Amino acid sequence: MNYKLKKVMRKFIGILSISVSVIAVTILTITREEPETEKKEIEKSIEVSILDIKQENVTDMIKGYGQVRARWKTTLASEVRGRVLSVSEKLFSGAQFNKGEVLATIDNTTYEVELADAEAALAKANRILKEEEERSKVAADEWDIRGYARKPSNLVLRKPHIQEARAAVKSAKVKIKKAKYDLTQTRITAPYDGIVIERNINPGDFLQVGIQIAKIYERGIYEIAIPLNGNEIQRLPANSKGVTIRLYSEHTDKVWDGKISRLEQVIDNQNRWQNIIIEIIHTTGLLPGQFLTAEIPGKNYNNILAIPENVLSDDGHIWFVNEQDHLQKFKANILFHKSGSIYVHSPAFLHTSTRITAEQDFFLEGIKVAPTFEIKKTTRAIVTNMEGR
Domain residue spans in the chain? Predict the structure, then answer.
């Protein structure tokens, strides 16, 4: 009886051991599979918003600001002495005038007398020169008649006298030229088409040489100096002279065209800016002192990416999702900023179309993600090369 009981007990223990082993194996199998399942579920749950960016061919555009100024600004001053006889209405402050118009007249009596005296002096000098030339001929003939063997000296032939007479003639001609010039300066004429800034004379005033008459500026051609920093200078084409520039006022809807005239060869000591000078020929509606915005075409770039500024990570990288839906990143080689976007070189390993995304705290390079709806093209406050200077 005891033997049978022992046999039954051994059989029960064996079956129990097998059952426990099966249960243990089952538990271990379940335990091993749970992390993999959980990992897959986690991978599937990581969604990132993306934006599809395509390579572009872009012309850089540099925005600058400057103040309109006249190409020529002149201070008219008296070159002669005399009383002011008349002042034209064209010389009033703000008045416009055309080149060659008489703006004021000065009493010319003194200069008419000086011109007459100079002309008389010239006539006398010419007479004396002719007399000396005749005397020289007579002296030469007498020398030949007397049959002297040696040649006559310059003094005998009165050559020094002739030279002195010729110098007197030349001096008299110069004095006539000077007298005529002074006479013309009694009529103050406009050197170009312009506008009066300030008038300083009145009829009846007595002017001395050098007295300021008026300040004027040319109205035919204006200029505007646009300060650019070193980075913006580098972004200009190699030969930018003559390039058409769009100019506009932010307070009106008017637009003007200008052309790059030159790049000033001096750098501002304080701000380290260099001025690019734009020439404006059609100046209707413009006044010196007015502020304008200029859009200056820069260099041309092929196959670059225009990326929203908010996508750029703090350490200067761009995150993107590759074809296998894994996160990757590349260092942004920024060419320029414009209108809330950064323009960067497209790395060689990228395709013509790239799915970019904004960095998040959980990002690790190489992890698998689920791309979802497009990110918004919002911007964040960062310092750019074109705006906010």
Answer: 47-58+301-374, 63-70+219-299, 74-106+186-218, 108-184
